[in-house]
Design goal:
It is a single chain. The protein is α+β, with helices and mostly antiparallel strands. It has a domain at about 1-140: Beta Polymerase, domain 2. Helices cover about 50% and strands about 15% of the residues. It is built from 13 helices and 9 strands. The chain has helices spanning about 15-30, 65-75, 85, 115-125, 145-155, 160-170, 170-185, 190-195, 205-215, 220-230, 235-245, 250-255, 260-285; strands spanning about 1-5, 10, 35-40, 55-60, 80, 95-100, 100-105, 130-135, 135-140. The strands form 3 sheets. A 5-stranded mixed β-sheet has the order 3-4-7-6-5, sandwiched between helices. A two-stranded antiparallel ribbon has the order 1-2. A hairpin with a 3-residue loop joins strand 6 and strand 7 (about 100-105). Helix 10 packs antiparallel against helix 11. It starts with a strand and ends with a helix.
C-alpha cells in the first residue's frame, strides 16, 4: 500500500488496474454492453514480457454501445478528461478518470484498422476468449487478434518492444494467421509498419503517416502526413482547422485543472508562432 499527500492509503497501481477491469466488465454485463479488454492484464500469456504492468484500463466497446457505456461509467464516478477528437491522431479513444479506480481508455476502433468500426468489433469479438482479471471473467481478443493489436500499437509507439514477442517470436503459421486477419481488417499497412515492411506500401495514402510514426519527424511532417492520409476533402479541411486549434483537453491535463481563457489564448498564440517558425525554417532550407 502507498500513502498519498493527504494521508490516504491507496492500493498499488497494478492491483487497482486489475480491479478496475473487473468493475468495468461487471457494469457492462449488467447493462448489456459489448466490450473487449485490451493490453495490460488482458494480454494472454507469452505475448508480453513477464512483469510488465499497465497504469490504466483499456477496453474496446462496440461503437453502437458507446453512449450506454459512457452513461454507466459516469453514473459511478468516472469523469471524462479527453474526447475522441482530441485524444489522438486517429480519434480512436477517449479517457475517463475515477478518484478510486484511476484511468480507463475507451476505444471504439483500433488505429491501423481500415474497415468500419462496428464491423471490426464483430471480427475481434468473433473468436474472443475469456481471461480472469481480479477473479472476474473478462472477454479478450484471441491470441491471433492480440498479436495484431500489439503490433499495430507498437507501430505508432517508437521504442515499444511488443513486436519481439507478438511477431518475431511467433511461428510461421501464427504469422500467417496474423497477416490474414490484417487483410480482413484492412490493416495491412499498419502491420507492415510494425514489422519493418512499410516500404512495400509506398504508394498507399497512409504510408507517410505510418512512416512518421515509425521514424519520427516534426509536427509539420505529422500534419502533412495526416493530410495525405485523410480520405475526403471534408476530412482534410477539418485537419487544417484542427492544426491551429489548441487541444484544451491536453492543456487541462498538463495544468492539472481547466485552463482559463487567457491560458488558452496564450497557448493558441504559441501554437501559431511555432508553426510559422517551422514553415520559415523549411523555406530557408529550400
Amino acid at each position: 500500500m502507498t500513502e498519498d499527500a493527504g494521508g490516504q492509503r491507496d492500493a498499488p497501481i497494478a492491483a487497482r488496474v486489475h480491479l478496475a477491469h473487473a468493475i468495468v466488465q461487471k457494469l457492462a454485463e449488467d447493462h448489456g454492453i459489448d466490450l473487449l479488454h485490451l493490453k495490460g492484464p488482458a494480454v494472454l500469456p507469452g505475448l508480453r514480457p513477464e512483469g510488465k504492468q499497465s497504469s490504466d484500463v483499456d477496453v474496446l466497446v462496440r461503437p453502437s454501445h458507446l453512449a450506454r457505456l459512457v452513461e454507466v461509467l459516469e453514473s459511478v464516478g468516472w469523469e471524462k478528461r479527453t474526447d475522441f477528437a482530441t485524444g489522438s491522431v486517429f480519434a480512436h479513444a477517449a479517457n475517463w478518470w475515477h478518484d478510486d479506480w484511476g484511468w480507463i481508455d475507451v476505444h471504439t476502433m483500433w488505429p491501423g484498422v481500415g474497415i468500419d468500426p462496428e464491423a471490426a468489433f464483430d471480427v475481434f469479438l468473433r473468436d474472443r476468449v475469456w481471461r480472469e482479471i481480479a477473479h472476474w471473467g473478462c472477454p479478450v481478443p484471441d491470441r491471433v487478434a492480440q498479436r495484431l493489436i500489439l503490433v499495430l500499437h507498437a507501430a505508432r509507439s517508437r521504442g515499444n518492444r511488443d513486436v519481439d514477442r507478438a511477431w518475431t517470436a511467433a511461428e510461421p503459421d501464427e504469422q500467417a494467421a496474423v497477416r490474414a486477419l490484417a487483410v480482413e481488417l484492412d490493416a495491412e499497412v499498419a502491420l507492415a509498419a510494425g514489422i519493418g515492411e512499410l516500404e512495400l506500401h509506398r504508394h498507399h495514402p497512409s504510408y507517410r503517416l505510418w512512416k512518421h510514426f515509425t521514424e519520427g519527424g516534426s509536427r509539420l511532417d505529422e500534419w502533412r502526413a495526416r493530410m495525405a492520409a485523410a480520405p475526403t476533402l471534408r476530412a482534410k479541411a477539418e485537419l487544417v482547422t484542427a492544426a491551429l486549434r489548441v487541444n484544451q483537453d491536453h492543456l487541462r491535463m498538463e495544468l492539472g485543472r481547466p485552463p482559463t481563457r487567457d491560458e488558452v489564448r496564450a497557448r493558441q498564440r504559441l501554437r501559431v508562432r511555432r508553426a510559422a517558425d517551422e514553415l520559415t525554417r523549411r523555406v530557408r532550407r529550400g
